[in-house]
Amino acid sequence: MEPQFYDTHTHTVQEDPAIISIYNQYPNSKINSTYFSIGIHPWYINQGQIENDLQCIHKNISSKKCLAIGECGLDKKIDINFELQVEVLQQQIEISEKYEKPVLLHCVKSYNELLAIKKQRKPKQKWIVHGYHKNIHLARELLRNGIVLSVGASLLKNKNLQEVVRSIDTENFLLETDNTAYSIQDIYYKFAALKGKNITEIQTEINYNFNNIFTL
Ligand SMILES: [Zn+2]
User: How many Cβ atoms are within 10 Å of 34's Cβ, its own excluded?
Assistant: First the structure.
């Protein structure tokens, strides 16, 4: 069966053959047989564990099932030292560049810092901000810098994000369920409704974006 829906970021193992999803894998937890991304999430940076986690990423990143590094990123709402977060992110960016896999990013109140790192490093690999739910101005700023937006359940309620989806071309988006109870179908249908298009058109466009960025 041809996959019909692509879920860029999820914490649930998916067994439906109609869906291709990128399962978020934490280092040193059991690797599933599904497609996955692997990375050190800023929430779980543990100074004594970083070397081990990075080694585990190195060990698994070349797997054909590993489609991306991440989620990793920056978060100003947590207690983990921000300099350390930057350092751990930069190490993962280097892995992304070395193994030629895109990066799935978590970013909270740190977009300026994220963009500064991107401008300085000029990575060749695609960067995807997952769970994007901010306004149109920031969305445009990220796109100008070559970042792709992955959007999920916030689409159902967040007016700013709905405006983002209405105003920006579908070629800039990926869709995801993250850790919500919604299905990826729910997200596709909402996205289609916001675009005023039918589901088949949106599937064609989003599925093209996914396959353009990730190598299955
Ligand atoms: Zn997540």
Answer: 16
Taking the centre of ligand 1 as the mean of its atom positions, its distance from the CA of residue 9, in whole angstroms, is: 6
> How far does residue 163's CA lie from ligand 1's centre (Å)?
23
Distance 99 CA to ligand 1 centre (A): 22
Range of the domain at 63: 5-213
Q: How far is the CA of 179 from the centre of ligand 1 (A)?
A: 6
What does each of the 216 residues of the chain score in pLDDT, given as a tens digit? 678 999 999 999 988 999 999 999 999 888 878 999 999 999 999 999 999 999 999 999 999 999 999 999 999 999 999 999 999 999 999 999 999 999 999 999 999 999 999 999 999 999 999 999 999 999 999 999 999 999 999 999 999 999 999 999 999 999 999 999 999 999 999 999 999 999 999 999 999 999 999 999
- List the one residue out of 110, 105, 117 whose CA is nearest residue 176: 105
d(CA 201, CA 52): 44
Structural domain tally of the chain?
1
Phi, psi of 58 (to 5 degrees): -55, -40
Tell me, in angstroms, the distance from the centre of ligand 1 to residue 42's CA: 11
Bridge partners of residue 74, in order along the sequence: 107
C-alpha distance from residue 52 to each of 40, 46, 138, 173 (Å) = 11, 10, 35, 33
Return the CATH number at 199.
3.20.20.140
